[in-house]
Amino acid sequence: MAVLDLQHIRKSFGSFTAVDDVTFEVNKGEIVALLGPSGCGKTTTLRMIAGFERPDSGRIFIGGADMELRPPYERNVGLVFQDYALFPHMTVAENIAFGMKNRGTPKNEIAPRTLEVLQQVQLPGVENRRPHALSGGQQQRVALARALVTRPDIMLLDEPLSNLDAKLRLQLRREIRTILASFECTSIIVTHDQEEAMGLADRIVLMNRGRIEQIDTPARLYQSPKTLFAADFIGHANWIHGTLSKAAGDAGIVATPVGDVRVTMRQGSPEQGPVTLCIRPERLAITDGTVEPATRMQAIAESVDIVGADVRLWSRLKDGTLVQSLDKNIGRAMPQPGSEVMLGFGPDDCVVLPASDAA
Amino acid sequence: MTKRLADALFGSVYYLFLASFIGFSAIPVVVAIVLSFDARSFIGPFPPTAFSLQWYEKFLADDYYYQGLATSLLVSAIATVASTVLGALAALGLDRAGFRGRKVLQAILLSPLVVPNVVLGFGILMFASRLGIIDGMPRLIMGHVLITFPYVMRTTAASLVGIRSSYYEAALSLGARPWKALLQITLPLARTGIVAGAIFAFVTSFDDVGISLFLSDAFTFTLPVAILAQMRANLDLTIAALSVIFILATILIIVLLDRLAGLDAAVGRGVYGR
């Protein structure tokens, strides 16, 4: 059953269309990420769900109830702000009790529930501290606790990890997932960070310029992006432009400046005409001659980046396109800059996308 | 070489100017303090020849000043409370308002700061008499609210700027109705601005002569008006003694204000995360 249902939501500010015909559902217990670059409308969408903005048209249902005329304080929505917005003049316990008091929790339940929720977010013993006496990660968890303790129908998290440093982010990502799962809480996470979206969400709503580009699971969004924007925004990609023609069965041939490429046709991908091939760097391998990939491309190695666990090789194809291939950093010798390399990939390693000037 | 000389010249002129300005503002205070201890019974040439506490005794024995002091304290206290409530609410309203003409309304509400007190005093006197208010006390309170209100509005508005809107929104999302969110979240966070405004309001009201002169009557007059009247009637050094008390009171309030503002600067970073 859908806890949240957005139907054809539209919102403009002056002449700027922030959100344009957005429709999606969130099911009970599901974590959905609203992902996109800044200005794509994800925050405006979140603010409309919370009730801080009113859509120009379209309808929002939470738990089956139309939210049209409901102000924020009459919606049962838990919100975690990007800056946490913990009330600085109140203790942690007072912060957590604030929502319960306003939502009419019986007085004798407030203190035990405050302690209980602090246990659940693994922060016991901080109830009498002020928010500014806590670290960023701790403040984040208090903000989560404050929103969760009122048992909202849906949790909204606005860029929950953007104020933390990289290592803490990874750790807190796992913790947030565990906490949200333990409350069986339906959640929406707004983020511009694709890693955060992939790591936290069951499904991703990818937005661009106020519109939804694609709604899919993280794995499918990465493996089968439906648009150039989706392929470009999630992870890295190499682009090769060409013209597709159909061959036998589900095979196709794309004529490109660097030679013909054999591809596998998938459902929903174009049948023929101008296309763009998207090849993920980890799928574009240096061939050593022992295996014979379906497509081979000659290139000149330009530079090698060691990025921790991975090695990224930049090389230039014959037509001047710069491509990257990603390999595990396991001590294999990498080509010298200036030397010739042979790159290869199979028909299933590339995604065929309709050519457009979007990416 | 000439450039360096010019720099040095500029530097000395600057310090000379600074020193003479400090002297200019400090000398009257020093003269008043010294003269208040003068043992002579008349106003003689400056350095007094002997010292005594006679003017302080005379001041403490005079009912006229007491009456003025009582009125001043009452008027200032009521005006401060009223201005603080009204000024804080006005600042909140203007901060949240998105309507057109917000700037104009703000300018009108702040205008008592720039309109001469004499004009305001005369205006209120006329206005009050049209309303049939002929008693000194309500007139004085009206006038003092008018001149102190902009200070509270200003300082509250300044502290509201530093409060992120997410606090208010967080309160709403936690089920608080707007008035409750303002009362329990926004106002406590703006408290330093409001308190600073209240202190400014009290000092301004307590020191005011211009507007009080118009609005006092024979039985209700503020301390500064009493001083002025006494000075015209029989000029003696009780005024000097009174000035010293005034100076001490003002210093006390400034120290209080500084402690408050200093506290804000030290704690503010942590509290408001600016």
TrEMBL record, chain A:
Pfam families: ABC_tran, TOBE_2. The keyword Lipid biosynthesis does not apply. Keywords: ATP-binding, Nucleotide-binding, Transport. Signal peptide: none annotated. This is ABC transporter ATP-binding protein. GO terms for molecular function: ATP binding. Residues 4-234 form the ABC transporter domain. Belongs to the ABC transporter superfamily. SMART domains: AAA (SM00382). PANTHER family: SPERMIDINE/PUTRESCINE IMPORT ATP-BINDING PROTEIN POTA, SPERMIDINE_PUTRESCINE IMPORT ATP-BINDING PROTEIN POTA.
TrEMBL record, chain B:
Its main location: membrane. Belongs to the binding-protein-dependent transport system permease family. This is ABC transporter permease. Signal peptide: none annotated. Keywords: Cell inner membrane, Cell membrane, Membrane, Transmembrane, Transmembrane helix, Transport. Gene3D superfamilies: MetI-like. It is found in: Cell inner membrane; Cell membrane. The lineage of its organism: Bacteria, Pseudomonadati, Pseudomonadota, Alphaproteobacteria, Hyphomicrobiales. The chain crosses the membrane at residues 12-37, 64-92, 104-128, 140-161, 181-203, 209-228, 235-257. The keyword rRNA-binding does not apply. It is a multi-pass membrane protein. InterPro entries: MetI-like (IPR000515), MetI-like_sf (IPR035906). Residues 69-257 form the ABC transmembrane type-1 domain. PROSITE patterns: ABC_TM1 (PS50928). It comes from Flaviflagellibacter deserti.
